[in-house]
Amino acid sequence: MKKIVFTGGGTLGHVMPNLYLIDELKSEYECFYIGSNGVEKEKVKKYVAKYYTIPAVKLVRGKVLKNLKLPFVLISSILKAKKILKKIKPDIIFSKGGYVSLPVCIAARLLKIPLIAHESDFSFGLANKIILKICNTMCVNFKNLETKSKKIVYTGPIFSKQFLSDKKNVSKLKLDDNKKTILIVGGSLGSKKINDMIYPILNDLLHDFNIIHIVGKGNLKVKSYENYNVMETSADMVNLYNLADFVIGRSGAGVTAESFYKKLPMILIPLENGSSRGDQLQNANYYVNQGVAKIIREKELTPTLFLKTINNFNLYLNKYQNQYKNIQIINGKDKILEIIKNTIK
Asked: pTM for this one?
């Protein structure tokens, strides 16, 4: 049986697409994973033959002193990744990006192992800028990146088989059939800023809307009541998207691509000012230009503005929903699976 090593981590946006591919490939190939001790470890290890960890330190923007150890950790990580790859002897590496993937990809290059990578955002992150130079193929979510290199293939995002379902299950939720439902999600780690802006206006919102609020692990401060449904995380995101009329959240690649695929209008609050390299604002602007989203800049966000924006957005919800009629939305999973299998041959 041929072997595939997957890598990527830091957030679930870098992890879940790998799991969707592993689910399709594990019957034909032996799958391994190299990641960090972060969010991906518990999520991934039960799906693969073996999970390996390597040291990983993220670049902290604007913090020079914190970044001084980066070169030393990177060298250590490359050496460890190289040792792991020599042991596994994989036929191919698939990288979903994130800082943990870079040393694995460099080690793959040194060992001359074929390397496929995927970029989810509207522009390349630092790791994938480097990986682009050493990979065989770089798959991307956005067509605008296709002209940057002959190695780049526009595939679109990666979704699971389950994500295609349109079934709705309300058994564990309190939803008023006469009200529209808002799904509020700040990404896999939650968003304290969005949570803190929602709580002061929550009772006002509940007059007109059902709320499904994913606050992030460790951020649960208010219990569910009436038509307010709150949870730290959810293993049933497909159902939550199917129940929602629109989404409020950050504009990371995962939430925006999933909302877009489900044809849900979005109110987006991008991470900015050192918390992000600017990719979230770029992502958000793409969906605004498609006519399906509204941006609130974080520096301008107040509870009063938030409530006003939500109510106004709801007034024009049909306009946003109608924009999807002219948009072709693709699932890149099958094309990426084809690229992986053809590279292994």
From this structure: 0.88
- What's the CA gap between 134 and 146, in Å, rounded? 17
CA 110 to chain centre: 29
Q: What distances in angstroms separate CA 53 from CA 42, 195, 314, one per listed residue?
A: 12, 32, 45
Neighbour order of strands in the sheet with 50-53: 50-53, 30-35, 3-7, 92-95, 115-119, 137-140, 152-154
Residue-wise DSSP of 187-232? -TT--HHHHHHHGGGHHHHHTTEEEEEE--TT---S--BTTEEEES
Location of structure tokens 């389950």: 162
Q: Which fold has domain 164-326?
A: Rossmann fold (3.40.50)
The closest alpha carbon to 343, from 27, 20, 114, 151, belongs to: 114
CA atoms within 13 A on the CB side of 294: 21
Query: One digit per residue, pLDDT tens: the chain, 345 residues?
Result: 999 999 998 777 788 999 999 999 999 999 999 998 877 888 898 899 999 999 876 655 545 445 556 777 889 999 999 999 999 999 999 999 888 999 999 999 999 999 999 999 999 988 899 999 999 999 999 999 988 899 999 999 999 988 889 999 998 899 999 999 999 997 655 578 899 999 999 999 999 999 999 998 888 888 999 999 999 989 899 999 999 999 999 998 889 999 999 999 999 999 886 556 678 999 999 999 999 999 999 999 999 999 999 999 999 999 999 999 988 888 999 999 999 999 997
What CATH number should be reported for the domain whose range is 3-156+331-344?
3.40.50.2000
What residue type is 310 in one-letter code?
I
**Which secondary-structure segment (H or E) carries 53?**
strand 50-53
Residues of the chain with CATH 3.40.50.2000: 3-156+331-344, 164-326
